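Recap from last week: sequence in, structure out.
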Amino acid sequence: GAGGATDQVSRVTAGVLENELGQKVVVVNTPGASGAIGKKNVWEADRDGYTWAAGAPKQLGTYKLLGQWDTWVDDWVLYNTVTNVPLVSVNPNSPYQTMDDFVAAMKEGKVTIATAGAGSSGHAAAEAVKGVVGGDYKHLTYDGGNPAVVATVAGEAEATTQLASEQAEMVRAGRLRPLAVLADQPLEIEGFGEVPPVTQFVDEKLPILSTAFGIFIPKEGTPPEVIETFNQIWAEVIPNAEPLRTYALEKGALFTPASGDAAREKVWPEIQADAWSFQAAGRATMSPDELG
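Predicted structure tokens:
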């Protein structure tokens, strides 16, 4: 959806690519099913190299697990740009002043959490917290990370576990109160300050909840010169792209360019963590073992 993590970084990346390719790169927002609809549209498009997908490549490893779509991460060539981490944030009018308050409410099954839908980064984050602290929550789903954040600001939900990049503007404006970053290190958000790590509030270690973002292209049938061009850009241009580096700083993200096998290697632990979280939550239609 418009304004979400995928939309934000894709538009910044598009500007960098336009300079290199000498032609317009159009971003088409296609919300729904945690990005599966948009990616499937790309999969079914002509394999002429002119239609690419964007989003979180880790989801290419869990769509099949969740029974959403029969695709797999190795069916695509990955081109990563940044890595985001989720935040637990609440509406300022909610009674939860600290992460301890939030955990106590979750243990009683009282919390409503807005996310971008089943299989999204926010959903995986909420399930991971639930898996560690116990209890339950009411899951409110929206067509994208930004709508989920806006819904929390509006009071439709008490909390959101979407990515920091999707929440940063509302945090800076005081429209959301961040309680913890789901990582083992604090997160600095420019113009706000430091958000404490969730490890200050829970004893058990959470699974990996970081989410790489980027562009990916169907491997089979795409003209080799397109792949070669992307490989060259990701080797020589993207690592030095100041617009992407600046975006990461402003949004509380990490600048992590990688392509091909290196990108897949970085994404694989994210796929594993999400897969087993969904399995533990009873959301999987098969065991992660079946997908290796």
